[in-house]
Request: fold
Amino acid sequence: MVSIPRLARRFLAPTRFSASHVSTGNLGGGAALSATASRTRPWLRWSVLGLAISAIVYLGNVMWFSPVDFLNGLAAFANNRVATDVPYGTGPRNQLDIYRPRGGAERLPVAVMFYGGTWEEGDRATYRFVGAALAKRGIVTIIPDYRVYPEVRFPDFLRDAAEAVRWTRDHVADYGGDPAKIVLIGHSAGAHISAMLALDPQWLANVGLDSRRDIEGMVGLAGPYDFLPLTDPKLKDIFGPVDQRARTQPINFVDGKAAPIFVAAGTDDTTVDPGNTTRLARKIESRGGQVAAVLYPGVDHRTLIGTFSPLLRSRAPTLDDTVRFIQDVTQAVPPSSGKGLKRAPATTNAE
Reply:
């Protein structure tokens, strides 16, 4: 674990990136600052990037492959997916894939990554580019599937997620990971799942784990943490009766005692309100917890997770910030093969 001042110092370190229209939270005890500068890039680089992305989208439409297939095709060259279809439970969706760095190093930090999909869809193979990116930075990465709606409703997907973390704790040493250095990561609905495991102790306790002892941190990307009242009929069905829905909201379990948390969102996200990110960060801060948060200017919901791929990495330093956070909370030394891992941007809360 790291203290709030140390976490804040790490995240307030100088960087080329600063967020527009956000202000830094007073997490380290100092005065609040405003940050309005933005990154500048040569116009030619943006033009080439735009043409490349447009070409991929066009080819995907006419040749029956999706842009994410291209991202995963690039990831295939990394050749660091060491195990697939590993069962952690009894059902067909209780399986996971494992990615590890090359080189045979042991006792490495571990990430368990839960993907999104509105709690009703998703496939771990879609996120090969995430596993490959984290493995390249020295992190053993587990990506599990979990049961989704309509097969299950809240809280069954949390139970599956907890079982995946239990499996990781028991077996990740066989793949070079340190079971004492587990960090949860989630995007969208997966960030909700990760946050519930980190903030509400009952879910990991059900599998014999302690969320305040057995995980070192949590990363939430574009997560819904405070999304009541519900208006969508499907979400109403997923999350149950009105009088029970408060127990589905991660923000309601903040007590300041959880492992350190890093949350991020894009300012252009119209799928999950970025206010979920800033409200959760403020609640954790108000209770004396360890939190860092950032909003990336001009980034939308899908692009946020897409920035783990080299193709979209210039859009936001999401991967760098996530890796830095994991290294900080696990006290990990960056791998010698890393190329200048950047410090994360200023800890921020939106105004």
